[in-house]
Amino acid sequence: MAFSEEQEALVVKSWAVMKPNAGELGMKMFLRIFEIAPVAKTLFSFLKDAEGPLEHNQKLKTHSVAVFVMACESAVQLRKSGKPTARESSITKLAATHIKSGVVDAHFEVVKTALLETIKDAVPEMWSPEMQGAWGEAYDELATAIKKEMKPST
């Protein structure tokens, strides 16, 4: 199923509202990931010896905004490009990083849940089943592209 014009419009409109708050929203998404799956913290080497509240961790802040923006920008570009795009790094590089970190399929579902909840909280007046479907479809396309590249080295 191709990403429709209607889905694109919902994603573009909501991203325009969220973009100015991308840093805060990225952190909210990652804090939600860690609520859903506390063990996910072990996937991030920069959190192994971290002290203090996660929301004050500068490396997590930097990572969370990069991931949130990349996921949202990829969603916005999906219909134009016909495939997920990753602006700052290639899908292949993302896949290699995910393999090295020990990411498995179930982790992608946790991130999807956290992403959709973050977006719903960020734009509650815009949220609808159609918007949830549009963002879900866009995320699934990106996750599928990354997973396809996550071939174990032999």
| Oligomer designation | single chain
Mean pLDDT: 85
Report the uncertain regions.
none
**Helical element count?**
6
- What global shape is seen? globular
User: Structural class per helix/strand content?
Assistant: mainly alpha
Describe the secondary-structure layout.
Elements lengths: L4 H14 L3 H15 L21 H24 L9 H11 L3 H18 L6 H21 L5
Summary, kept brief:
With 154 residues, this protein is mainly alpha-helical. Helix content is 67%, strand content 0%. The mean pLDDT is 85.
Question: What does the model show?
Answer:
The chain has 154 residues and is mainly alpha-helical. The protein is built from 6 helices and no strands. Helix 1 crosses helix 6 (129-149), helix 2 crosses helix 3 and helix 5 (105-122) runs antiparallel to helix 6. The longest helix has 24 residues, at 58-81. The termini are far apart. The mean pLDDT is 85.
Descriptive keywords:
mainly alpha; 154 residues
